[in-house]
Structure formats: structure tokens, C-alpha cells
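Hi support team,

I submitted a single chain yesterday and got back a structure, but I'm not sure I'm reading the C-alpha cell output correctly. Could someone confirm the output below corresponds to the sequence I sent? I've pasted both exactly as they appear in my results page.

Thanks,
R.
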Amino acid sequence: MARAITIDILQLLEDKLGKEEGRKIAQAIEIGLEVIEKKADSVALQKKLELKDELTRELATKADLQVVKTELEGKIAKLDQKFNFMIILIIIALTLMNPVAAEIIKRFLRM
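Hi R., thanks for writing in. Yes, this is the structure output for that exact sequence:
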């Protein structure tokens, strides 16, 4: 770590408190600043990990998307079957409602 106390501040402390006391105070300030910096780094890392965990819980993962995709494909397949069935029913209904087809069916049933 770069020196936290500048030469000017160290000189001021030495002038006001004496050379030995000024150096001790400057050293204590530097140690305090180092402790604060280490604590700040630790807290920052902890907050980053908490944020990562929170985002991991909130955001969809690839596995989540795969599950949804599989469910949608199943629903689409069922709808496709229903749609095909409805088309067949419409074709049958239109055929039976056709007068020509009705006449053919009547003749066929009289046999």
C-alpha cells in the first residue's frame, strides 16, 4: 500500500508533538487506515457475493429455460393435435351438409 501520511503531514505532526511522538501518531494513523481498507475490501467482497447469490436466485438459468421450452413444446403438440382434429370435423361437417353428398349417402344407405 502507498504511504497514507504525506511528508508534509508527518512534518507537521513532528513539529507539534515532537519527532518520536509524531512518528508514532503517523504510524498509528497508517495502521488504522490499513485496517479500514482491509475491512472495506472484506465488506465489498461480501456485498458482491450477496448480490451474486440474489441475482442467481432471481434470474432464469439455462436449465429453467429448458424446462419452460419442454413444457411449451408439449402444449404446442397437443394444440396441433386438436387443430388437426377440428379440421377433420369441419371437413366432415361440410361434406355432410353438401346436398350432393347427402344424396349420395341416402342412396348408399338404401341399398
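A quick pointer for reading it: Helices lie at 7-17, 19-58, 62-97, 99-110. Let us know if anything else looks off.

Best,
Support desk
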